[in-house]
Amino acid sequence: MQKNTSPCYYGEYLQLDKFLDSQHPVSGQYQAHEAHDEMLFIIVHQAYELWFKQILHELNSVLSAFHQPNLDANNYGKIIQRLNRINEIQKLLNQQIGILETMTPLDFLDFRDYLVPASGFQSIQFKEIEILLGLKMEYRINFDKKSFYNRLNDQDREHLMNLEGQPSLFDRLQEWLERMPFLDQANFSFVEAYKTAVSEMLQHDLEIIEGVEYLSEKDREFQKKDLEKTKQTFEAVFDNETFDHLTKDGQFRMSQKALMGAIFINLYRDEPAFQQPYLLLEKLIDIDEEFTQWRYRHTVMVHRMLGTKIGTGGSSGHDYLRQTTQNNRFFKDLFNLSTFLIPRSSLPALPESLKKAMGLRSE
C-alpha cells in the first residue's frame, strides 16, 4: 500500500541532477584538450567518499550501541550485522582499485600536476573512520604526527581534533572486555586455571622436544630456546610488570584485563553466551584486515603510477603508504590472540553453575 502523499520520482529522490553534475575535470582549464582519464579519477574517488559516508553511518551506530553501562546482549546481532556491512563495503572499495588501475601512468600524468596540493590526506571522512576505529594521533607514524593536520583548513582541523578527544571503538571495546563477568568467580578463577593449563601445555611441549630421537643436539637446543620465548610471551599476560614493560615497548595496546577477557571469549567461543561476542571480535579483525589490504593495494597502485615520485600532498608517495600499511592498524591485539590459545582438550573445565549462567546471559 502506498504511504506517501505525493509521487516519488527516481531522479528527484536520488537528486541525480546534482549528483551527475558534480564531475568537473580541471585539466581542460590548462591545456587544449581535457585529459580523458581525469573523469575516471574523479568518479572513483567520489564513489570512495560515498562509501566512506555509509561506513561512518554504520560505525556511529555501532559506537552508540557500545556506549552503554552494560552492552545489551540483544544488540550483538545488530552490531555484528553492521560490522559485516562495513566489511562488505571494504571489499568493494578494494575492487575499485582495479578499475583505477585501468589508467596507465601516462594517462595519470596528463592531469596529475594540476591537482597539487590536493591529495588523499584531505579526505576528512577517511580520517574520521580511522579516528573512530581507534587510530588516534599517538599511534600514527612520525610523518603523520608532524603533518596530519597542517594540510587541512581550520574547520576540518578543529572537527578532527574534537573527534580525537572522544572515545573510539577501540576504547569502547576495551571497556567492554574489561567488564568480563566470568573471569573471577567465588568457586572459579579463570586466570589461575588458564595459567595451570598453559604450564602443563608448555611442559608437554618440552617433553616432546627432549623425547624426539632424530633431533640433533643443536636443533634440540634451538627448539628449547624457541619454547622459552613462547613461555615468556605467555608470562606477559600473567605478570603485571612484564605486561606494562611490553606495552611501553609497543607490543600491546589493550589493557591486561581486556586482553584476558578477549582470550576467555576465544577459548570458550562454543559456549552459548560467547558465540556472538566471538563473532564480534572476528568482524573487527576482518575490518582491520580489509583496511590493511586497501592500504597495500593503494601502495602498489601508487608505486605503479608514480614510481618513486613524491605524492601530490608532499609525502614520499609509495614509501609513505608502505609505512602506513605496516603501522596504521586498529586491532593488532585481536590478531595476536592466537598466540595465547591452547588446545580445546586442555581448556580448564568450567563449573556447572558458571556454564548455566553463561548459557543465559553474557553481562
UniProtKB/TrEMBL annotation:
Catalysed reaction, written as an equation: L-tryptophan + O2 = N-formyl-L-kynurenine
SUPFAM superfamilies: Indolic compounds 2,3-dioxygenase-like (SSF140959)
Binding residues for heme: 298
Binding site for substrate: 41-45, 112, 312
Cofactor(s), names only, from the UniProt record: heme
Superkingdom field: Bacteria
Pfam families on file: Trp_dioxygenase
MF terms in GO: heme binding; L-tryptophan 2,3-dioxygenase activity; metal ion binding
Keywords: Dioxygenase, Heme, Iron, Metal-binding, Oxidoreductase, Tryptophan catabolism
Pathway assignment: Amino-acid degradation; L-tryptophan degradation via kynurenine pathway; L-kynurenine from L-tryptophan: step 1/2
Single GO BP term: L-tryptophan catabolic process to acetyl-CoA
Repressor keyword on record: no
Enzyme class of the recorded protein, top EC level: oxidoreductase
Cofactor note: Binds 1 heme group per subunit.
EC code: 1.13.11.11
Subunit structure: Homotetramer.
Family of the protein in this entry: Belongs to the tryptophan 2,3-dioxygenase family.
Function, as annotated: Heme-dependent dioxygenase that catalyzes the oxidative cleavage of the L-tryptophan (L-Trp) pyrrole ring and converts L-tryptophan to N-formyl-L-kynurenine. Catalyzes the oxidative cleavage of the indole moiety.
Protein name, per record: Tryptophan 2,3-dioxygenase
Designated gene of the protein: kynA
